[in-house]
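Record type: ASSEMBLY
Status: queued
Input:
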Amino acid sequence: MTSSDLWDEDAAARYDTTSAEMFAPHVLDPAVDFLARLAGAGPALEFAIGTGRVAVPLAARGVRVSGIELSQPMVDQLRRKVSAEEVPVVVGDMATATVSGEFSLVYVAWNSIGNLRTQDEQVRCFQNAARHLVPGGRFVIELWVPGIRRFPPGQSAVPFAVTDRHVGFDTYDMVTQQGTSHHYRRLDDGTTRYGASNFRYIWPAECDLMARLAGLVLEQRVADWAQTPFTSDSESHISVWRKPMDSVGS
Ligand SMILES: C[S@@+](CC[C@H](N)C(=O)[O-])C[C@H]1O[C@@H](n2cnc3c(N)ncnc32)[C@H](O)[C@@H]1O
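Status: finished
Output:
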């Protein structure tokens, strides 16, 4: 049983359109470059692979990519792009599901680890990543830094998109580290569609502790896929943890 929201058929069918800016070459190419370099000659495993936004171009670079994904409708969308032979996927929970084989790279893109909404499950996700890695292999996450610094006293929402087609804002509960992203999208027929997704936010330091619990060691932290240095003003991070060469099975 997972705490994650389940992405249904409707959300899956609209995903590539509503996330179009995340498919833009200037967003995707640096991510694929970064991950291809870390995978090297070895296979890669994407947790929460979705419709294959990252996995499909990574596989096109010659990296053997597998996935774990909770939502069958998201996998159905992926299957419109690549076959199960090209990019095999286990439908299951990234905190617990097992894929056969060992990987030089396990990664979770675009804040998806936050879809696990308990600390226990997030810890288990790190442990599951470590379990799938060869010694010397790497676990990479792309995650925002919680936008709490933007909250003046008394304000309960932080906008992240304000255009004539899309208004999006996050609300946070500082006690439980739970958050919700709210989206109001104007449709072509003039009506507005509301959607929300829930997450548990984590700071980089909490990620490091989860990695340590999984026997992983921090190797690199940058602000984005283009490897901009990570500073106290960074709003996101790409973190790379390594499974030590001398680690025994976890
Ligand atoms: C924002 S989308 C990201 C998809 C893809 N990684 C990308 O970058 O486009 C989040 C994905 O996480 C999946 N997901 C949520 N909870 C999950 C879980 N516990 N295990 C595996 N996948 C999960 C959702 O079904 C959805 O496909």
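Annotation: The first helix runs from residue 9 to 18.
Annotation: The chain has six helices and eleven strands.
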